[in-house]
Amino acid sequence: MCRYIFIIAITFSLFACNQNQPATTQSLADSLHTADTSLKAISPVHLIIPGKKIGHVYINADADSLAAKLGHPSFTDAAMGALMMQWTARANGHVYETTTYSHRNMGNADNSVSYIKEIRTTHPKFKTADYAGVGSELKDVMKIYKLKKRDVPGGTDKKTALYEDYRAGIGFEVDSGGKCTAVLVHAPGDSSVTYINMHVQQKTPSRKR
């Protein structure tokens, strides 16, 4: 009998101790969500959407319409139905680039339209909804996208690598320190354009077409 009374006393004591303990701490997921709510949403004019756009520039849009939005490019080069255009912007002592590669459907009824196939920017103001962009750490970006490492097309700087998520339609150029230096967007699954050299050398003046 005494043994049963002792067990009941111990059980009651443990229950009382649990009642006096503070509430459990917030879960990690809830904590991260709370932190995220303090971040401001990216403005549409600065938003990167993988597979679709960077700012005002959209995949498969008519390249000729960009001048009305971005002004006359600082560089253009056209050959064999392909067109490369680049705009530069200066801010805080840095020169930033936004480059597009477009192509005409030669021989088709719409061959007068130069469709934008890839966009590249080095400007840190452009971000994805998850705040990935120029200046981001590779280790953080890899938590969001399934990236595969490859060489930068046409690049002579061996310290820079390209990390691509073909299915999502986005790529990140990363320096030797693991920091993103450029973002590229193309149509989802379109791996062919990722072999295009988007590093323009502005040695000649822009040519009007």
Architecture overview:
By secondary structure, the chain is α+β, with helices and mostly antiparallel strands. Helices cover about 20% and strands about 30% of the residues. It has four helices and twelve strands. It has an eight-stranded antiparallel sheet with strand order 4-5-6-7-12-11-10-9, with no helix packed on it. A four-stranded mixed sheet has the order 3-2-1-8, with no helix packed on it. β2 and β3 (about 55-60) form a beta hairpin. The model is unreliable at about 1-35 and about 205-209 (pLDDT under 50).
Distinctive features:
single chain; 12 strands; disordered C terminus; alpha+beta; 209 residues
User: Strand arrangement, largest sheet?
Assistant: 4-5-6-7-12-11-10-9
Could you give the distance between the termini?
102 Å
Overall 3D form? globular
Uncertain residue segments: 2-37, 203-209
Largest pleated sheet: 8 strands, antiparallel
Relative strand content: 25-35%
Per DSSP E runs of 2 or more residues, the count of β-strands stands at 12
Number of contiguous helices = 4
Taking all residues together, what is the mean pLDDT? 80
Helix-strand pattern: HHEEEHEEEEEHEEEE
Helix content: 10-25%
Q: Strand pairing plus helix content: what structural class?
A: alpha+beta
Radius of gyration from the CA trace? Answer: 26 Å
